[in-house]
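Hi W., the zinc ion complex you wanted:
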Amino acid sequence: MIKMPLKVPLIIKQLEALKQRLYQNHPKLPQIEYDLAKRWRGYRGEKAIQYYLKLIDDSDLYIFNNLRLKIKDTFFEIDTLILTSYYFLIFQVKNYRGEEISFENYFNQCTRTINGQRETIDDPLLQAKRHKILLINWLNKNKITMFIPMEEFVVISNSKCLITTSPNHPTARQKVIRPTGILSKVEWCNSKHMETKFSNKELRKLANSLLKNHVTELPNVLEYYQIPDEDIIKGISCPKCSFKPMVKIKGYWKCTNCSTLSKNAYLKGIKDYVYLYGQEITNKQLRDFFQISSRYVAKDILQENCVNSSGKNSQTIYILPLLE
Ligand SMILES: [Zn+2]
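Structure:
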């Protein structure tokens, strides 16, 4: 079963929110747009393999997309993890730009060619192997110390990208595949690993534990791009023309540009706040971000939407939900 379905990563939603709240000529915009395009490309790559994952999906295996675990102070995220009672499987999905990706045996080098220009990139085979080792460490820390066979593959999802390897690189030949190769690799694993390692009940328990330990990433994008708060365009955004701020009139949010009325346009504002500033908010911070003056309107919104709060009166800190 698909235990963790593929979703648009939060970082994409964060960057989209940030982009929409910066002026068109903001100096950081080109970098944000570049990073955003890269993230979308990665997501599309993972989306492209979902069809094949559905074909192998079965009630007695568990498929996770973008499972992110913590070990000591580091996090690692596995693009696709499949648990079976006999072995575990990792797919590292790459949707490279460019016309050629080349794996070289020496120095663990990998190069890619874009518009005739060759450049070295991180070897995805090493990345997949690192994730396998970190997963073993995580399992050990969680008292699963027995040997579990694990296989890792790199899936190059861009069908226009030519894959080449140096002649003596058996690892790349065996472990780098196209999405269409997923089925045959799973069959190969099925025939290679036939010893039962987990009962159905044990595997279900482990799958639940992995899901429970998934940590959503919500980086501070303002800090990352060094964007001061005053550069952010505040206010509720009109769902029709994107004008900000909408004004609150008798239970409605009204756009002063196109006169659109909306009852729940503020929900997008709550999401945007969380994406840019995190889940904690005070009444004053909400008024500033929504560009409203009434502390009572702000209080109503906060009380209705927060998942938790602490402190009293003006010191109250509300916790907003992480809406995905
Ligand atoms: Zn409008």
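The longest strand covers residues 62-71.

W.
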